[in-house]
Amino acid sequence: MRCFEHRGTGSAKFWWVSRDGAVVTVRFGRAGTAGQTRVKELADEAAAIAHVEGLASEKVAKGYVEVAAGAAAPVPGPVVSGPDVPAGGATDEPVVPRDEDVLVLPAQWTRKVQPRRGGRVGGSLPRLAGAVAKAEALMEAKRPERAEVLAAPRSDGELVAAAEGFLDGSRVTPLGAAAAVVASTHACEHREFGQLAVLADGWIAAHGLTFATRAVAEAAGLDVRRRGYSSPDKQENLRRVTPADRGGRWSFDPWLPLAERVRARLAVADDDGYEQARQALAGYRSTVQRTITTYLMPTESPWADEDCGADLYRIELVGFAVSTPEQWDRLAGKIDAADLSLRGGLLATLLDAVGPAVTPHLIGILNNRNAYTDQRRTVIGALALIPTDEAFGALLLQADDKPAAAGLSEAMQRFPVRALRLLGTAAADPAGNRGPAAELLRRHVTANPEVAGAALPSLPEVVRWQVEPILASLSTVPQTPAGSLHPLLVTPPWTRARAVAAPVVVTGLTAPDVPRLCWAPGEREALVPQFVEPGPEDAAGLERWEQEAAKLREGRMSHAADEEKFFVDAPRSLALELLPGWRPTSFWSPGWTLPRLLLRFGADAIPVVVRRNRQRGSLDVYGPLLLPAEGAEVAALMADWLDRLKAVRWIAVSWLRRHPQAAARDLVPAAVGPVGAERRAAEQALRVLVAAGHADVVRAAAADHGTAAASAVEPLLSADAAEAVPARLPDLPPWIDDAGALTPVLSRDRRHALPPEAVRHLCTMLAMSRLGLPYPGLAAVRETLDPVALAEFGWSLFTAWESAGFPPKQSWVLEALALIGDDDTVRRLSPVVRAWPGVGGHARATIGLDVLYAIGSELALIHLHAISRKVRFEALKYGADSRVRAVAAELGLTSDQLADRLVPDFGLNDRNTLTLDYGPRRFVVTFDEQLKPLVMDEDGRRRKELPRPGANDDEALATAAYRRFSALKKDLRSVAADQVRRLEEAMVTRRRWTGAEFRRLLVGHPLMVHLARRLVWVTYRADGAVGTAFRVAEDGSLADVDDKAFTLADDDVAGVAHPVDLEADLSGWTALFLDYEILQPFPQLHRPVWRLTAEQAAQRTLPEFVGVAVPVDRLMKLERRGWWGRSVPMDAGIQTTMECDLPGPGGLDFPLDPGISVNDVYDQSGQIFRDARLTGVENFAALDPVIVSELLCDLHYLVDGGSLR
């Protein structure tokens, strides 16, 4: 029988052909099914043979691949060979279950299995006739290499004599044969190894199998030692291997092909010949060649037992002789990833011999991200073959890794029912890899509905509950009739001929360039906290600055840093005089200079900031500085960014939404001007304004420029805007047409699904869209479709793009999530965005931030804010923070105020409870003091978990309620942790709320009130002094330390109390909380307090911390806290300073010795603080006592260890 398989973009197929005399039988169908059978009788056997060959050639031409045929010879363990048949899709034939607990090695693996007597013996061996002549010819060709080795003065004399005796025929011995071959072939390239096995055949043909066996054993004990690789007098000396020699793991000794050939001959030798060879090898068991004896005779199990536990030369050879799991357990620790990937057939031989017993070792290599890619791929390929939950689960846990994902896909095809069970279990596990598992399960069921349907009764309930709705969606949704589709989904503009009107050009218009800054609340103050204008200069100081100004006018300043310092520190009138003429070609420290220029000179500094942002590099860092700015120059820059630069497109969109009137006024002249890049950019910017609901603003601005301008911009505002399509349509990827890859797009009433051609049109619209600039017809199309199904379709697009390896040309798929995604999209995307920078995906992560920003829902902004506060990649954190600040500015809020308003209430009512309706029964959800959800039935009895919908429940209501609760639990975990962190940060940074905000955003919030009750709060007077401490009682009222009622006025200011604030009342509050058994969300009342003496507070340094050694891991832990960071890498990537950026004014610098290498952060024994310098303030007395306490606590942690808080 010959077996072939085909794996295309759809379901896998098989095709088998067998011949019995003149009768040819063909069996074919979808993989995993019984298929169909056709029988044909030919005229004679020769005709049947020719017919089979013809059919096979046709299949190969159509993309089929031949796999192993039939069953193998008996081998130990549940291992068979045969066609590698993956699970298939739809068919009219009944599904025939396959045994998913049997290891089936595909043909490409069985070819690598080394032969074993009584087991798998491989293909036929070459005939021995003519082998002697071929061997002699090969040895003659290697004469020059051999002569050099044998003549070397350091070569072993006994070995040289034995080799010469064998070559001239005067003394033919196995040692002489081995020495001659090793000397001849030591310099062979690995590509030549395939030719060397004929030398073993020559020995067998001339001297017999036992002689060849001994010769291989002798060769395994010889080596050619090279001395002076590149020197003119290099020598290559023939020598014996000694017990002190290690290795060979990374070498490819030329005797290995001979050993493989002799092992193959021994596997099929007659009993007498085998026994003679065994007795000959027994004599080598006490020598350094011991492992080669075990390799050559894997049936000698006692030899393998003895060697598995020993530390031997070439120990990896014993792996080829292992035959039991117990032997492998003893040997596994001595076999590394290199052995499995470099040694030909070792892993295949192990799988054949002991099967799934190798799984734990393979998983260890898989989980080692330091392993080489080819090593991991070899292991992944093996795990995809192993029929166990352990192997499949290991691949599933690595589903975010591209090679592992490919292996997981193979395992899903090979073990379809196991895939259903394990994917379904993982998708339902809150602690598991739920996101990938749920999507993989959907795709698996969609591609294999018959397999899923047949397996459904045997699946666990938790899996059935997920599989059934997927199957139901496949079988109950007919395609939408063409007459019911939106016209743009039937005949969009790009499918038909259409008249393209010539653009109307209006020349002579100009935009009034009126630069100004429009600061949002708190935005100016946050730009450079505690910024202070330089004080007045004395006469000498003024003279010095005049000299510096003269240098600047005459172009004599030697460094860009000197120019920047001049404009930041020089007297304002002098600096302002020279500012308009300053044209720097580069900046030394724009992140420090530009914000200070905006604060010093206001709108007069806008041209300088624009100039820096017209230069290349770090536009995502310096571009947000222009968000409060207006002016024609700013508007032109933003339009250009929108058109050309994906990385900063979000800045342009944010600016346009924030300044619609100014943008329209300044961009209309270019939008109706001469055709070109400037007009295209301006037109797109105006379309963003229209998409954001500012069409009337654009009309009014155009009218201000005259009637002609008003008429020229009208096409941008009309319904015909959908007719405008790019000259070149985007190419859609092939997986768009894979029915199993994408979820159906349902009509608004969920009764029909879009047909394939309409799906392609929808994808074309998404591919043409940009951030903030969707295809004009997309909104109308979206109104006809179910939003939940559309969001699911968007995510399936994303996972298909992920499976394809994230090709950059299809990055529109990621941006499309902003157009059709929902809160479930946010929940899935956010952890992916957090992880991408760690796997080389920073560019994708940046687009992911844009998507969260563009979705703009409360949940999207919550996740964006969380990324801005807690993620280990600084660039990602900064990008998220910039977007959060932009949203806050649009709403007239600070970032903290926005975060307060983004805390979800999860649908809780006035009693802080949520009712889940199952129809005949209802459940009530509330929270405990740790913000964990509690479920009670209608009688008030506590339930451990919300029950799954049952047969008597209303299916629609119960399913929706259960899913709502599942989403709530998922969101609550991240939201609760984020709010606890925010409140602790508020305590340390001295955050304030007004009395009105406190009642509305904290006490009045159904979630935050649980946290507010567990903390002590304090009011602050107008001069910043501490007022009264209070708490939130169970009924929402306020009380002081004596439990007396306390009133907080609307205009009072309150914050989270630090122990420094409480002083004498600290013990009273501690006793009160103990009495009421109130558990605090973070250390507050028991927080350690550190103080400086008056003498220490008057200084700018901390001498007690100078010269101390600090472990690097503690520095890294503090860095994650938020204040601490490392300086910019200097030469050789060394970061020489730890910088503590304190809340409010001031900071602390700690020069390090020897410094931290960015190439290997944790490979440092320790760092020594060479100094501890205060910056930004006069001395420590100028700092808030709370900041001093927190700083000292951090420093004592660095020095003494222990717990951080």
TrEMBL record:
Residues 1-79 form the WGR domain. CDD domains: WGR_MMR_like. It holds the Pfam family DUF4132. It comes from the Bacteria. Keywords: DNA-binding. SMART domains: WGR (SM00773). PROSITE patterns: WGR. GO terms for molecular function: DNA binding. This is Putative DNA-binding WGR domain protein.
